[in-house]
Amino acid sequence: MKIIVAGSLAFDQIMLYPGAIADHIRPDMHHIISTSFVIDHLEKNQGGTAGNICYNLGLLGEKPICLASVGKDGADYVHFLEKNNVETKFIQKNEKVYTASFVVITDQDDCQISGFYEGAMKNDVNLSLEKCVENMTVAPQDIFFVLAPTNAEAMAKYVHEALANKVHFLFSPAQQIPNLSREDLLSGITGADIVIGNDYEISLLLEKTGLSEEELLERGGVLVKTTGERGSTIHQKGREELVIGVAKPKQCQDPTGIGDAYIAGFVSGHVEGKTLIESAQMGATCAAYAIEQYGTTNHSFSKPIFENRMKENFG
Known about the structure:
By secondary structure, the chain is an alpha/beta fold. It has 10 helices and 14 strands. Strands 4-1-9-10-11-12-13-14 form an 8-stranded mixed β-sheet, with helices on both faces. Strands 3-2-7-8 form a 4-stranded mixed β-sheet. Strands 5-6 form a two-stranded parallel ribbon.
């Protein structure tokens, strides 16, 4: 199957704080928060949900199509993706604004405070999954679409286009859950083959839609829930919950981007026809590589090395 990934392309600034962010937050003074952190490590990297997922898919031997936008400073990022087995012909460049930027502070407990500048990502609403599908040499049923967080209006449009063109897709609303309407979230949940998020995101998704987890599963598809150090779980209507362990990292440097790495591993397994358990194990293994390096696209591996590591962790 051919993989299309829609989401953000962004430049990340990742800062590490050696203390605990919670120590700086006074609950009784939350209405006038003013605090600062002395950072002991800074990394600047290519990132964004689409970029992260595409990069990891490239490492896994796939050649995904990236459907996203960059700004006037994005030429080097596009070149970086091309070098890493990503098709970039559907990336739109806006010469008037900068590429989206993500700034995050991560503390010793892996708690984060972040800010996101949309920049060129606002133009994602002008991109079209339908036009992308029309230009493909494969039938819509042989396309798998990954919808990761980007401009909320664009996400709603992509869901509509995926449904209209009968394209199988994974729905990961994540950070955009608060900005998507209940109707848009319900459309994504109902139409997707796979809904994925961490335990907090799934809780927020259920709250925003008013669904229980059982009601979500009634709408069909597969729910994948990641739970950090506890691994991940797979849920399907009328079936027993599947519990997936973690692939042990050699070191824990930076958790930013591990969710995107997990999605890439899972999708690679899924389109190759692997079982849900095997796909989730691929996701967990890919996430382990991501957490071992600062930044979201600084790790690397060959497919044979990846497969050996997966076997070491899961047998």
